[in-house]
Specification:
alpha/beta, Cyclase-domain-containing protein, 9-stranded mixed sheet, arylformamidase activity, KFase_sf, globular
Length: about 350
């Protein structure tokens, strides 16, 4: 679908029981009434993908995937991966060699949050009015028989290929902080709220312009802290504050109006934590105060959120070359009912 053919945030048709900015029905097939499951990935039209391919000039590719076991210390909520190696003979084959298996949480390291990751409202709905359940997600045996907007559905449309744009907020903050001895330097664990104005300012500083169908990528420096945390970093963890995009309606409106196909970053939640209350004041601990951008992006727009992507090497290459846009490819796992997946993402210059 041509990104220019959809209404802006404030002009989206009202959806009963949902806030303004709900895009349910916008991408539905008007001829047969089939409900859409791809959300803003529909912005990745053949013309937009072909234009993104023009970003490839140097033949350089950079992985954006953090190791599955990158977090080396106990982390709440999600278990670390377990890698098991067996010999082929142990499996009953009369040849020498090895098999291996990995038991891992799809959101322990680099990931896409799919559209069923969080649900919205008392009815527990997600994008386009779908109602995922634990039983329904776990019992899916074939993607074709699964009506939910899960990540495995992406393979029917060729996964994610488009123009990626890096906003290296970490580098910008480090290089442009005012020379004030009393000012605290930027830190990914201090809960800095990156506003729309901040993003636009960094984009101008980098000399990059956004285009409809872009995949927005924000570097905060968070994964680099997790790779070698200091005692000071662990003390900051206790405060449960994370730098990220400012979680307010104005940010959601800007993301939709920019027609981004997807968003991603190196932080744990993409948006800053703790989230803010309706009046804009800081909320409580993350678990006690609902996020703002996740419901808008995943549930209202159908916009996938990438988290914990490895962006350090990408940032270095962009700085060295002065190019902050590139061809981005991402082929997630293909298993029926997937809520999330490693992105298997590559930036190509």
């Amino acid at each position: 679908m041509d990104p220019g053919s959809v209404p802006d945030f404030d002009d989206l048709p009202k959806v009963a029981g949902q806030p303004q900015g709900c895009a349910w029905g916008v991408f539905d097939n008007k001829k047969d009434g089939k409900k859409d499951v791809f959300g803003t990935l529909n912005f990745l039209t053949p013309a937009i993908v072909a234009a993104a391919a023009a970003e490839v000039k140097d033949g350089v590719s950079i992985s954006l995937n953090w190791p599955l076991n990158a977090i080396k210390f106990p982390f709440p909520f999600r278990k670390s991966p377990t890698h098991t190696v067996t010999t082929l003979r142990e499996g009953g084959m009369e040849i020498e060699g090895f098999d291996d298996s990995i038991d891992f949480n799809t959101q322990f390291s680099s990931q896409w949050d799919g559209l069923c990751h969080v649900v919205h409202g008392d009815e527990r709905l997600t994008y386009n009015g779908a109602r995922p359940t634990k039983e329904g997600l776990a019992s899916a045996q074939l993607t074709a028989d699964n009506a939910l907007p899960t990540i495995d559905r992406w393979h029917a449309r060729g996964c994610v290929v488009g123009r990626g744009v890096l906003i290296d907020f970490k580098r910008y903050a480090d290089e442009t902080s005012p020379p004030d001895d009393n000012a605290s330097p930027y830190h990914p664990l201090d809960g800095y709220r990156i506003t729309v104005d901040d993003v636009e300012k960094v984009a101008r500083h980098q000399g990059v312009e956004f285009k409809p169908g872009d995949i927005l990528i924000i570097r905060t420096g968070y994964t680099e802290v997790l790779e070698a945390p200091t005692a000071q970093d662990f003390a900051k963890f206790a405060a449960a504050t994370l730098s990220g995009l400012h979680g307010v309606e104005a940010t959601a409106r800007w993301i939709w109006n920019r027609r981004f196909a997807a968003v991603a970053g190196d932080a744990h939640g993409f948006e800053a934590l703790p989230s803010v209350k309706a009046d804009g004041s800081p909320g409580d601990a993350p678990a006690g105060n609902p996020l703002v951008l996740h419901p808008y992006l995943l549930n209202m727009f159908g916009t996938p959120i990438g988290e914990l992507w490895d962006l350090k090497a990408l940032g270095e290459h962009c700085r060295k070359t002065g190019r902050y846009s590139f061809l981005l490819t991402s082929a997630p796992l293909n298993h029926p009912g997937l809520v999330a997946s490693p992105p298997n993402a590559v930036a190509i210059f």
